[in-house]
Write a structure and sequence with these properties.
mainly alpha
Length: 94
């Protein structure tokens, strides 16, 4: 796959990870790996585009969206996990 294709794929997968990251529960669990894959694809695609002296704007956009998606997905996943643990603790004490 060429650099432009990888950069576009990374951008699209990063957007999917971002959308899934904003959802709660199992969707944020799916959003975190998707965001990481999008981030990696964007970095590799951007590196190939820069090496070929082509515009790397889509790779940079995928990189930024991927970073935001990883952060949002991680926060959502861990805060929902804490919520579930608290609810389980209350249910166990009843």
């Amino acid at each position: 796959m060429n650099g432009k294709g990888q950069a576009i794929a990374g951008f699209v997968v990063s957007i999917v990870g971002l959308v899934l990251g904003f959802m709660s529960g199992a969707f944020s669990l799916l959003g975190l790996p998707a965001a990481i894959v999008g981030l990696v694809l964007s970095v590799v695609g951007r590196k190939k585009l820069v090496a070929a002296e082509q515009p790397a704007g889509i790779g940079t956009a995928g990189l930024v969206v991927g970073i935001v998606a990883v952060v949002i997905s991680a926060i959502t996943f861990f805060t929902c996990g804490l919520c579930v643990l608290c609810a389980a603790g209350v249910a166990a004490s009843l």
